[in-house]
What we know:
alpha+beta; four-stranded mixed β-sheet; 158 residues
Amino acid sequence: MPYARGASFPHPPRYLGRNAVPGNRMRPIVLLVCGLLSPLWLATGCAGDNAQTSTAAVRRAPVAVAEPGLQPPPFDPGLERYEREQLPGAVQGLEGVERAAWASESTLVVHLEDSKAGDRAHLCPTVERYPALRATRLQLQPPPGSGGAVRFLQCRPY
């Protein structure tokens, strides 16, 4: 039985699917528009006076200040470049170290003369003298043919 255009019926025929109800076609579009505009609506002050009071409360909140010893040193590219040139030589001068060279921006490869050398107490004091490079990762490379495993060491976290 054909239906007349614009005729209302309690539910659409099953063969037409869910898009047969006129409101269902617009629902995804309306939801999308509402979702995109809601942050803008919230940012422009939909809360009215409550937004002003909460802003005032935030302004009056005390600011936490870190202790001077806990703050990282200010970033100085010149200092980092200088320390990056100096650190391999300083590590290479340690007992039990054959040579040291940068493998990447954050990894210093340390070639050891003895597979037992290269412990934290031996290397970290030297690395920590360079503030810009304290978090450098050290790749401890055992001597060739020793059978020792490559180890990684990081004296300080980032």
